[in-house]
Amino acid sequence: MSTPLWFAVVANRVSRHAHARLDGHLRERGVRRLAICGVMSEMCVAAARGALARGYGVVLPHTAHATYCVPAGPGPSRAVPAALAARVAEWPLGDDVEVVADPDAVPFRPR
User: Fold this and answer.
1) Using an 8 Å Cβ cutoff, are 93 and 84 in contact?
2) CA dist., res. 27 & res. 11, Å (int)
3) Which one of 5, 38, 46, 102 is most buried, by most CB atoms within 10 A?
4) Which residues lie across from 61 on neighbouring strands?
5) What are the b/e assignments for 45-63, b being 16+ CB within 10 Å?
6) What is the pTM of this model?
7) How confident is the model over 61-72, as pLDDT tens digits?
8) How confident is the model at residue 25 (pLDDT cuts 50, 70, 90)?
């Protein structure tokens, strides 16, 4: 049986139990690096942190996650556009992840 060059995992919630099962599944197949994409930037960042904690390399395509606009708060604060909020969500990951422009820039390589 040949190992595919890539495959997708769909998750609709964060669960340590599910992450442990996924970790075992990925390790059995020799996966060492993950591209993380999704609807909510905050969830993608949480997934990236979990993957980093388990020793995976992480690629985060900037245009493959998004979030909502942040409304203005009390006082003089202004609303934050969704695109900027998504970028801010990526920022705390620092140099631990590779942020690329879009999914087409993700380098999938065979083992």
Assistant:
1) no
2) 18
3) 38
4) 100
5) bebbebbeeeebebbbbbe
6) 0.79
7) 999 998 999 999
8) confident
